[in-house]
Amino acid sequence: MSNLTQRVLTAIVAIPIIVIICMKGGIYFMGFIAVASSVALVEFYKLAEAKGAKPLVIVGVVSGFFVNLSFYHARLQISVAGLFNSFGIAIPFPTQAQLLLITLLVIVAFLSLVELFRNEGSPILNLSTTIMGILYISFFFGTFIGLRELFVPMDFPMLRYFSSESSFTNPAIIDQVYRWGGYTVISVFATIWICDTAAFHTGM
Questions:
Q1: What 3-state class would DSSP assign to 187?
Q2: Backbone angles phi, psi at 195, to 5 degrees
Q3: Is the peptide bond before 157 cis (omega within 30 degrees of 0)?
Q4: Helix, strand or coil for residue 154?
Q5: How far apart are CA 71 and CA 76, in angstroms?
Q6: How far apart are CA 86 and CA 73, in angstroms?
Q7: Checking CA distances to 52, which of 1, 35, 43, 201 falls within 20 to 30 Å?
Q8: pLDDT given at position 18
Q9: What's the pTM value of the predicted model, to 2 decimals?
């Protein structure tokens, strides 16, 4: 089977599934991106190991998941607030930028502590490779989640598209606006696929 045939068959199966997941959004899209990010991060660490580095693969993948999760901010905020409110407790929740910063700081501190007692290869090389993978792979994959959840909750700049804030309580309008995030993510994927296909055939 030729490379082109494999690509076409993969596209026929994968693209409709990815489009459905993008439109579904929520935990389905979050899970899809987390899995894709983890697979890509493991591949990155394998390349680094081939060059002599000893990255913390398992810790790096778990850390990458929490970076992805930080982009799921609005849903997390709703879930956490609902959980504590059921006990009559109101807690302040960080903004998405604050949550991402806290997550990265905790990851760097934890990885540094682990590497301090690891004593395997160069600590600086291992630590920098592990962190670089998280920033290069997990962080950028996470932006897909942020893009998909861009219109949750409905707030500014959504006000310009509706006559009043009362529209935000209309389930039909909420679903419509949430689909915009799906269209946005699909347009990014489509751009990547078109460029990749064009580069492949031009290269041939």
A1: helix
A2: -65, -40
A3: yes
A4: coil
A5: 9
A6: 20
A7: 35
A8: 93
A9: 0.82
Token pair of 167 as six digits? 């529209």
Q: Give residue 162's identity as a one-letter amino acid code.
A: F
Phi, psi angle pair for 106, to nearest 5°: -65, -40
CB atoms within 10 A of CB 16: 10
Residue 159's pLDDT band (boundaries 50, 70, 90)?
low
Helix, strand or coil for residue 204? coil
Q: How far, in Å, CA of 40 to CA of 43, rounded?
A: 5
C-alpha span between 153 and 156 (Å, rounded): 9
- 39 — pLDDT class (breaks 50, 70, 90): very high
Provide the pLDDT confidence category of residue 88 given band limits of 50, 70 and 90: confident
Where does 33-75 show beta strands of DSSP type E? Answer: none
Q: Tell me the two tokens of residue 60.
A: 């790096």
Cα gap 52→61, rounded to integer Å = 19
**Chain centre distance of CA 76:** 14
Residue with tokens 């291992």: 126
Give the closest residue to 95 by CA, choosing from 63, 69, 78, 73.
Answer: 73
φ, ψ for residue 88, nearest 5 deg: 75, 25
Q: How far are the Cα atoms of 25, 33, 72 from residue 175, in angstroms, in the given order?
A: 11, 21, 18
**Mean local confidence (pLDDT), 185-198:** 91
Backbone angles phi, psi at 2, to 5 degrees: -75, 165
CA 20-24-82 angle, to 5 degrees, is 160
